[in-house]
Amino acid sequence: MPTLEHSLGATDFERAGPTQQRPLVLFHTLLADRSVYDGIFPVLAKTRDVIRFQFPGFGDSKGRCESIDDYASWTISFLKALALPCPVDVFSNGFGGFVSVGVVSRAPELVNKLTIANSGAAFPDERKPPLLKMAELVETKGIESVLDTAISRMFPEEFATANPEIVKQRKEALSKTNPQQFAVACRALEKLDYRALAKGISKPVHIVAGLNDATTPPAMSQELHKIIQGSEYSEIDDCGHCPQIQQPQKTLQLLS
């Protein structure tokens, strides 16, 4: 896959589909790399110019990112380096959702419409300790120590039990993540508060909540919906943290 050098590092990305269409950029969650979109990427590319990329710590992407602001700046630098002919549509998931709030707030000229699945503006206090625990485990015992936790946060238990091959694929993909950068990202999420920043978003935003999400529960999406004036809000039944895997058809409908 190509790697694009830019002012804040390098981005490992993949692009497919008709380039005369408005680009659709896919932001991945911290619990998965860009392969989390494997099931819908080729379908989207039949009618859209689709770009999926890796954050630093995943694949060959490189950059100094210690806060969500840093990740947003890094992503803005990548989007500008692509030199696309028009503002892009964005679909962001989980960690990528937090980053996308920073991107559209700081560089609104780059974004046409933003769809955020299972994210928010800040983690409530009671949900911060698990982020710090994952960071500590990864730093002391390696990325393998959080694979089971990651799966439990990505999928409801019933779905994980019924889909062992998907669980295996997700563990294999996450095991390749740089553990130091993963820990930094966990700590960045724990410190993040974008509630004030999100109030200034004026672009069209559609916020989607998976009702069975154990990582960023619906209450976080609902809070973001209340903060961003004029945003749309939808819910997906029987869905955990990654609708593009658990509910691919409904995800495609959202993006059609």
Summarize the structure.
The protein is an alpha/beta fold and 256 residues long.
Q: In terms of topology, how is this protein built?
A:
Elements: E1 3-6, E2 9-16, E3 23-27, H1 41-44, E4 49-53, H2 68-82, E5 88-93, H3 95-106, E6 111-117, H4 128-141, H5 147-154, H6 157-162, H7 164-174, H8 179-191, H9 195-198, E7 205-210, H10 218-227, E8 232-236, H11 243-246, H12 248-255
Parallel strand pairs: 3-4, 3-5, 5-6, 6-7, 7-8
Antiparallel strand pairs: 1-2, 2-4
Helix pairs in contact: 2-3, 4-8, 5-7
Structural class: alpha/beta
Overall mean pLDDT score?
97
Distance between the termini: 26 Å
What's the tally of helices? 12
Task: Specify Rg, calculated over alpha carbons.
Answer: 17 Å
Number of strands: 8
Low-pLDDT ranges = none
Overall outline? globular
What does this structure look like?
With 256 residues, this protein is an alpha/beta fold. The protein contains 12 helices and 8 strands. It has an 8-stranded mixed beta sheet, sandwiched between helices. It starts with a strand and ends with a helix.
